[in-house]
Backbone:
């Protein structure tokens, strides 16, 4: 409990440090100035026609101001959409690299008599009660914060105690086969994207890649390959299978084209996947998931406030309400609100321009 409270405390401190206190202070000053102006106008006697002339001025100024903001905002949106398209294309490219890696894993786990002990790999993990054990779930078994349901926990414990289980060999096979297909699903068919070498324009699910990055998925595979244990008999693969694997590796990075299919190649491939491809794709997917940035959200908020308090409400008061005390009070309130809004925009203009032209 104490640890949780401390974590919340530090998270709160971190969030507070990242707030834009300058903008918050300017916002408070703008509200105070708008209130003072309203009170000052309210205490003064208004001349005949004050409301209509004031509303006309507000509509004129804010009509121009809103038009400029609308143009600027949609230019920003166009820029963001172009950036998202480029990001999506990059995500497709990195997703294809991971698909090629999954094809390599698929081919290496597809046949019997390729692994040094089929009983500890294919027979153990592709049939009966362990066929739905997932590697990410299995790795979570060793984490302090992992909270599986009792049934899954019992299955993993039985797997660890099974006479056929061999640490390293069974772990590596489970890691690779879990990349090939969703082991939680009852559909045992291989995913369509793994057939042959078709290049499909698709991206992976953010949550799936996030789990892979969080548990250093490919790093665990790299560990066992880097030890150069005898786990796979590469010579047992047909020549077509070897060429298929090497071609898939070459499509990931041309540096693999001249390498021999062995543990060294697989260790380097897993390391690159862990340190580069998974993490790059994760960042790209995060960028695609993001909505309006804080900067664009600020512009959008100013635009909405300008349209409501500078166009819609003045329009309503000007044409709907008859000359009366209520109309005069509302007009004075709108003058105060629009003054505060313009003050907030002008005082933040330098920061907005700086944000626009600063890329790092």
Residues:
């Amino acid at each position: 409990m104490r640890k949780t409270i401390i974590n919340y405390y530090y998270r709160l401190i971190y969030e507070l440090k990242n707030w834009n206190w300058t903008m918050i202070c300017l916002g408070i000053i703008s509200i105070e100035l708008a209130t003072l102006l309203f009170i000052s106008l309210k205490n003064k006697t208004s001349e005949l026609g004050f409301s209509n002339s004031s509303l006309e001025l507000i509509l004129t100024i804010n009509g121009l101001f809103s038009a400029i903001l609308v143009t600027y905002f949609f230019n920003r949106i166009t820029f963001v959409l172009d950036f998202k398209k480029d990001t999506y294309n990059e995500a497709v490219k990195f997703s294809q690299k991971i698909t090629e890696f999954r094809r390599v894993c698929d081919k290496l786990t597809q046949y019997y008599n390729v692994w040094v002990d089929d009983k500890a790999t294919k027979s153990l993990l592709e049939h009966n009660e362990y066929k739905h054990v997932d590697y990410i779930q299995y790795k979570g078994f060793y984490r302090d914060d992992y909270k599986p349901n009792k049934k899954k926990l019992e299955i993993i414990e039985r797997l660890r105690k099974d006479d056929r289980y061999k640490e390293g060999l069974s772990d590596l096979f489970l890691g690779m086969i879990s990349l090939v297909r969703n082991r939680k699903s009852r559909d045992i068919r291989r995913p369509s994207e793994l057939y042959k070498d078709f290049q499909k324009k698709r991206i992976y699910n953010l949550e799936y890649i996030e789990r892979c990055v969080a548990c250093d998925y490919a790093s665990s595979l790299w560990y066992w390959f880097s030890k150069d244990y005898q786990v796979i008999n590469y010579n047992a693969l047909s020549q077509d299978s070897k060429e298929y694997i090497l071609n898939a590796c070459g499509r990931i990075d041309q540096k693999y084209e001249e390498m021999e299919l062995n543990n060294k190649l697989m260790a380097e491939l897993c390391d690159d996947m862990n340190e580069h491809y998974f993490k790059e794709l994760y960042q790209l997917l995060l960028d695609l998931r993001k909505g309006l940035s804080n900067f664009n959200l600020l512009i959008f908020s100013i635009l909405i406030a300008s349209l409501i308090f500078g166009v819609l409400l003045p329009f309503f008061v000007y044409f709907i309400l008859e000359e009366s005390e209520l109309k005069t009070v509302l007009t004075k309130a709108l003058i105060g609100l629009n003054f505060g809004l313009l003050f907030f925009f002008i005082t933040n203009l330098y920061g907005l321009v700086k944000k626009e032209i600063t890329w790092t």
Remarks:
- The longest helix spans residues 50-108.
